[in-house]
Amino acid sequence: MTFLSVYRALSKQYGPQHWWPGDTPFEVMVGAVLTQNTAWSNVEKAITSLKQAKSLTAKKIAAMPAPTLAELIRSAGYFNVKAKRLQNFCNWFLQQGGESALRQWDDASLRHGLLSVNGVGHETADDMMLYAFERPVFVIDAYTRRLFSRLELVTGEEGYEVLRHSFETELSKKIIPGDEQVTLYNEYHALIVIHAKDVCRKKPRCSECCLRRQCPAAE
Ligand code: SF4
To answer: 81 in a domain, yes or no?
Structure first.
């Protein structure tokens, strides 16, 4: 199997995913910070709380007392840490001139800038790059490592950037750079998440898996 053939099989199985679940790019950015180490359903509750408090803007989040913000996002877990990270991000976001200013940045500068924010790691930055700013960056997460190590396309122990480059290098050979690349990376990450959550779980359900015939780890 190759990264591309896995994409084709998952795409055939699940169809278009149209990620990321968020009404605006800024909501996607907030979700990317809140989703660290928690289920998405908990993030949704936190975002709903922010909306109900009419506080889902960078200015309001940055200006709010940290304990108030922590209470609003309590459902997302690690709420004190995440409140601080969210405020760090919002302060940086505002200092740079907000979303429209950041959209003018080239890919490398934007990624470097996001990674400079205390509390924004590779996966969070790349979630924002891909799903909020529509930049061609392949997101690596624990689901990606689990699925592709079982398929023996990676060891699962590689560093984040090594894996990201592996995916981007193979996939970019097959497609036209630009918007189509963004669409492919967007859909592919969403497909990996759905497959790893529902089928290639910690305890895999191989009998339900569309990849089982090619998978060395199939039970
Ligand atoms: S066959 Fe089993 S281990 Fe392999 S990808 Fe499918 S669910 Fe995962």
So the answer is: yes
